[in-house]
Design a protein that fits this description.
Blueprint (H helix, E strand, L loop, with lengths): L2 E6 L9 H13 L5 E6 L2 H10 L5 E5 L16 H6 L4 E4 L2 H6 L9 H13 L3 E6 L3 H5 L3 H12 L8 E4 L13 H13 L7 E4 L4 H8 L6 E4 L6 H11 L4
Parallel strand pairs: 1-2, 1-8, 2-3, 3-4, 4-5, 5-6, 6-7, 7-8
Helix pairs in contact: 1-10, 5-7, 9-10
Length: 247
């Protein structure tokens, strides 16, 4: 299957950031064709503008989170339908930074919240990227598979299997730390055993140009969810090219 290389810009990106996307688009246009799908999820304020500006490029755009309802009295929230209206193709749901700091009543966002959001993304005709991953304490306790298995059981939508899964060990996000290649292979094989053979499973967690090729070569790693390295065209381009030969 085609790899998906997705960039999560988090709370970074202004109008001027279009220059980085323009550089990336030019590099991709001048290079040999790649077998990777390329996605950037900028802040919600830039989705419509970037989608319009780069409509002729090979880059797709998506949202970083959405509300489960299509509309309503939810000040500051954005629905999946709004992202569809803005031209998005994907929406990330259940990222660890959302699971840890947000949720109804000020509580952490739980699996049921993530499932509702994933089903909302499907309702809007978009593809959800559903994030799962264990903490450092959970891994040290030998509970990584159990934790991720429970997240999958509680977070995956019941209405469709047209989704992407992103495995992100929480302790590796933005820290510069990565699991061993064997650890990544074990977890991705485990996730594959819980899903269809053609569901794309991405790895996320300090993916950089220097480690992308070896990570993307692992069986059942069908792409990457990239954080900081996706903000710079040169770095992100190298990761895209590393995933371009993945089938």
């Amino acid at each position: 299957m085609r790899a998906l290389i997705a960039g999560n810009w988090k709370m970074h990106g202004l109008a001027a950031s279009a220059s980085e996307i323009a550089t990336l688009a030019a590099k991709m246009k001048d290079a040999a064709p790649t077998d990777a799908d390329v996605l950037i999820c900028p802040p919600a304020t830039r989705v419509a503008a970037f989608t319009a500006k780069f409509s002729g490029s090979a880059i797709q755009f998506g949202g970083q989170d959405c509300h489960a309802d299509p509309s309503g009295a939810h000040t500051g929230d954005i629905s999946a339908e709004m992202f569809a209206d803005a031209g998005a193709a994907f929406v990330i749901v259940g990222h660890s930074e959302r699971r840890a700091n947000f949720g109804e009543g000020g509580h952490n966002e739980g699996d049921a919240d993530v499932r509702r959001k994933a089903e909302a993304v499907l309702r809007a005709g978009l593809t959800p990227i559903i994030c799962v991953g264990e903490s450092e304490a959970q891994r040290k306790a030998g509970a990584a598979l159990e934790v991720v298995g429970a997240q999958l059981a509680g977070s995956l939508p019941e209405t469709s299997d047209d989704f992407v899964i992103a495995y992100e060990p929480v302790w590796a996000i933005g820290t510069g730390l990565t699991p061993t290649l064997a650890d990544i292979a074990e977890m991705h094989a485990f996730i594959r055993s819980k899903t269809r053979i053609d569901v794309r499973i991405l790895y996320g967690g300090s993916v950089k140009p220097g480690n992308a090729q070896e990570i993307l070569a692992i069986d059942d790693v069908n792409g990457a969810l990239v954080g900081g390295a996706s903000l710079k065209a040169d770095d992100f381009y190298q990761i895209v090219m590393a995933g371009g030969g993945k089938q």
